[in-house]
């Protein structure tokens, strides 16, 4: 049996960053073990682990007989079954020999609570990756994984125009697939479009050094939290009590209190109720 801790979280950037405190707790609890994450290998540079094996979703996990396996992916059953199939010496998960799953707890706290239940101290505030010089541009990120979490591009464009009109340097980020969206948001303001032009390392450095980040409930919001970068975050349809930034950080959250389907195919009504003036009033530069 390998002297290894295997943690499963086959999810995207924001999801993985919420698990950083738990991963650090595992490192402290098992200092002589190799800490292996089953997740997207592209995110390895940001994570406090020894190795990342490529896994998307709840499995399967191409590993055998770790001494400890930890389900940081979800409530199961697929993720739990995938880890059981590796034949671990010990499995830490919700349900089977672990705590019941709760829907009313913040995502960072959820995984720390799982480890605490198994006797491993974990600090939800231990999520920071460092801090930049704040000498960079304002970063505006209009995209999101699902339409329900995308504030309208024409409203982002008005915010960008406001910032440019006051002399602030602005960049608009996104994936290669979001190039047209980013161009639409930049408009004729003179903001630079970086959608599809930054790898993870460059994007992380951009957020780390940014003067301000403006975006919705996306991975970039969690990156701003990890670097303590000031941010204005537009939430909906998921409550910031479940996925929002640390309360003690330099972050302003705008949320109208309405919940809905985070995987919906149209903008959430609560998110649409946030107007441009509210976002501009939240900007402090």
Automatic annotation (TrEMBL):
InterPro entries: Glyco_trans_9, LPS_LOS_Heptosyltrfase
Protein keywords: Glycosyltransferase, Transferase
GO-annotated cellular components: cytosol
The organism's place on the tree of life at top rank: Bacteria
GO molecular function term, any single one: ADP-heptose-lipopolysaccharide heptosyltransferase activity
Pfam families named in the record: Glyco_transf_9
GO biological process, any: lipopolysaccharide core region biosynthetic process
Classification via PANTHER family: LIPOPOLYSACCHARIDE 1,2-N-ACETYLGLUCOSAMINETRANSFERASE-RELATED (PTHR30160:SF1), TETRAACYLDISACCHARIDE 4'-KINASE-RELATED (PTHR30160)
Identification of the protein by name: ADP-heptose:LPS heptosyltransferase
Native source species: Nonomuraea dietziae
């Amino acid at each position: 049996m390998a002297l290894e801790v295997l943690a499963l979280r086959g999810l995207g950037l924001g999801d993985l960053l919420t698990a950083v405190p738990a991963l650090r707790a595992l490192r402290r609890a098992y200092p002589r073990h190799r800490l292996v994450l089953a997740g997207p290998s592209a995110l390895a540079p940001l994570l406090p682990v020894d190795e990342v094996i490529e896994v998307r979703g709840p499995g399967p996990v191409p590993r055998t007989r770790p001494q400890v396996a930890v389900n940081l992916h979800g409530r199961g059953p697929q993720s739990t079954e995938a880890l059981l199939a590796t034949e671990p010496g010990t499995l830490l998960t919700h349900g089977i020999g672990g705590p019941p799953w709760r829907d009313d707890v913040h995502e960072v706290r959820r995984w720390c609570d799982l480890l605490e239940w198994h006797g491993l101290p974990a600090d939800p505030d231990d999520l920071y990756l460092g801090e930049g010089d704040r000498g960079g541009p304002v970063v505006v990120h209009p995209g999101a994984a699902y339409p329900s979490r995308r504030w309208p591009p024409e409203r982002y464009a008005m915010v960008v125009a406001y910032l440019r009109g006051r002399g602030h340097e602005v960049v608009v980020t996104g994936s290669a697939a979001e190039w047209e969206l980013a161009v639409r948001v930049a408009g004729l303001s003179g903001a630079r479009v970086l959608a599809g032009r930054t790898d993870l390392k460059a994007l992380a450095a951009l957020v780390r050094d940014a003067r301000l980040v403006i975006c919705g409930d996306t991975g970039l919001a969690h990156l701003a939290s990890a670097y303590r970068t000031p941010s204005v975050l537009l939430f909906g349809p998921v409550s910031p009590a479940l996925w929002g930034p640390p309360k003690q950080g330099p972050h302003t959250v705008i949320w109208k209190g309405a919940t809905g389907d985070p995987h919906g195919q149209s903008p959430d009504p609560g998110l649409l109720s946030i107007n441009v003036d509210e976002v501009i009033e939240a900007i402090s530069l």
